[in-house]
Design brief:
single chain; mainly alpha
Length: 162
């Protein structure tokens, strides 16, 4: 986040200012050394790590207790008021939520239609029949199909409540 907010020139200047301000305290700190550009990482990325390391070093040695930090350019301070919300992010989130709700409704509608069909089939199969069936009876198959539809539906509904 720091690398994306500040320019490489600002990061380099901040490191130099920090080293100069605390030169006596940072005498034994290896992080104050000037870095050169590396092929593995950009110079300003390494300098951000150095700055954070120096702050940790200074804090561990209680050298930041009397230091006060202030913003120089107030226009660069992020705003957090309701009028400053990222409307694009809100619209994107709303779009994703709407899509998820639509997919869920479609899935439930399909399951309900299938369940309705099985109930109709079940009703027609057992209408007017008072005989007892064994589990091997072919007329029990719609009941097994009904269970296969209801169980995932129950799990889906339980998951949604949590």
């Amino acid at each position: 986040m720091i690398v994306g907010f500040y320019t490489p020139i600002e990061i380099g200047a901040a490191k130099k200012l920090l080293v100069n301000t605390f030169s006596g305290v940072l005498a034994d700190c290896s992080l104050k050394a000037e870095r050169r550009k590396s092929s593995a990482r950009e110079l300003h990325e390494v300098e951000v790590d150095d700055i954070l390391g120096m702050f940790n070093y200074l804090d561990a040695n209680s050298k930041l207790d009397t230091v006060i930090f202030a913003a120089v350019n107030h226009e660069r301070i992020p705003k957090y008021g309701p009028e400053e919300l990222n409307l694009c992010a809100l619209a994107d989130g709303q779009s994703k939520l709407k899509s998820y709700v639509n997919e869920t409704v479609d899935s439930l509608s399909t399951q309900i239609s299938h369940l309705t069909s099985l109930c109709t089939q079940f009703t027609e199969t057992f209408k007017g029949s008072h005989t007892h069936f064994t589990s091997s009876s072919p007329k029990v198959q719609p009941l097994a199909q009904l269970r296969q539809v209801i169980l995932p539906l129950q799990i889906t509904l339980i998951d949604r409540e949590m």
